[in-house]
Design a protein that fits this description.
This protein is α+β, with helices and mostly antiparallel strands and about 400 residues long. It is built from ten helices and 15 strands. A hairpin with a 2-residue loop joins strand 4 and strand 5. Helix 1 crosses helix 3, helix 1 crosses helix 10 and helix 3 crosses helix 10. The two termini are about 20 Å apart.
Length: about 400
């Protein structure tokens, strides 16, 4: 592991905050629903965070992203001349769906805080805010600024972090607080949702020869993709991301058993690595479709980028690993000192707003946060209470080292 010059003993920031303080803040955030089926979505939790940060004495503003949906930007201003650090988290959650616990009770039981968003990622928001508060109370004067961004919409279009970057939000390094189980990620794959639409011709099930069965044609498509594309993906390895991968997520077609299906849709999730682009990914599938069409005059199909998988202006680009960056070195050193051994670098994690910050904001970024990724979006979502307490200290020490 690369060690930063001048790395030293961690500061004991725990004397400047209490366990109850960060736990209560996380509970309060979980108790405010902020998913896509709530009116004005993240607006209430944004207002809560704004008031909390204002009461804490931070410079705090709101950025309108859409209607009442707003980012909250809180700044702990440095004395000048240091590196500026962005602490980024999202205020939206996935809906509760069929959760087996009360999604908004925020109960503390068996060493966990339970509820929707506890792990992904209101726990991290609470840790980041409390870390800034602990630094402020400590009286330590950092040269650089700490810029906390509570962004809307990561679970869908990432419109909050996109808005932050497009409106000039920047820093010398960034931490995205997605759960990382005391490790961290330097890179992750880009993301595309694609749909292949196969068109056939309807006919009565008693005379199927008069129709063109789109479901049968879809079977050709799946077989061809598995034979021609999938083996190539495993060969496209990235040290910090793992291989390119794809998944057939849904297939839908036809109207009833006695009618030849005149339409079939295949929807796919495609994760790509540097060296691939959105254009090259789509072209691979187009080549497969064109090859089938060349041998089958009845085959008609098209591939499209799914609307609900698109951002407003950017692509869901990869987080490009920068292991030599100051934020990567600093984060690794603080984690190593905290754990007593080198932290694990995650190489196969899901997409995050770090892709926006690094690719479009040109900000070296790591993914590092409390909780375990396996608890995210779960029917019994939860976060270890001990993680909430420890990550305040981790974030505060990274900020103190980086911004000085």
């Amino acid at each position: 592991m690369i060690m930063a010059e001048g790395g030293g003993t961690m500061i004991d920031f725990k004397q400047f905050y209490t366990d109850d303080e960060v736990i209560r803040l996380a509970q309060d955030l979980v108790r405010i629903p902020s998913h896509k089926y709530i009116e004005d979505r993240e607006s209430r939790v944004a207002e809560y965070i704004y008031d909390y940060c204002a009461d804490a004495g931070f410079e705090v503003t709101m950025e309108t992203v859409e209607g009442k949906r707003r980012n909250v930007i809180a700044v702990l201003r440095g004395t000048g001349g240091g590196r500026d650090l962005i602490l980024n988290g999202h205020t939206d959650t996935v809906p509760p769906y069929d959760m087996t616990i009360d999604p908004f009770c925020a109960e503390i039981k068996d060493g966990f805080l339970w509820g929707r968003g506890a792990n992904d990622m209101k726990g991290a928001l609470a840790c980041m805010i409390t870390a800034m508060l602990a630094i402020k109370r400590s009286g330590i004067k950092l040269r650089g600024d700490i810029i906390f961004t509570a962004a809307v919409g990561e679970e869908e279009k990432s419109d909050g972090t996109e808005h932050f970057v497009m409106n000039g939000g920047t820093g010398d390094g960034a931490i995205v607080g997605e759960p990382s189980n005391y490790g961290y990620a330097l890179g992750h794959r880009g993301l595309e949702w694609l749909e292949i639409r196969i068109h056939g011709k309807t006919a009565h099930g008693g005379i199927p020869e008069l129709g063109i069965n789109a479901i049968s044609k879809a079977a050709k498509v799946i077989n061809a993709i598995e034979e021609q594309i999938v083996p190539k993906l495993a060969e496209r390895q990235n040290e910090y991301m793992g291989p390119s991968v794809m998944n057939f997520g849904t297939i839908e077609g036809g109207t009833q058993p006695s009618t030849v299906a005149d339409f079939c849709s295949i929807k796919m999730d495609r994760r790509y690595v540097p060296g691939e682009t959105v254009e090259s990914v789509i072209k691979e599938y187009e080549d497969v479709l064109n090859g089938i069409a060349a041998d089958d005059p009845d085959f008609r199909a098209e591939i499209i980028r799914m609307e609900n998988g698109l951002m407003n202006h950017y692509d869901h680009a990869p987080l490009i690993a920068q292991p030599e960056s100051d934020i990567a070195i600093c984060s690794g050193n603080i984690l190593a000192e905290k754990l007593g051994h080198a932290p694990e670098i995650a190489r196969r994690r899901g997409w995050t707003d770090a892709g926006v910050l690094s690719t479009y904001g040109k900000i070296p970024t790591v993914v590092l946060g409390p909780g375990d990724l396996s608890f995210s979006h779960a029917v019994d979502e939860r976060i270890p209470v001990c993680d909430l307490v420890e990550f305040v200290d981790i974030y505060a020490n990274i900020a103190a080292e980086f911004c000085r």
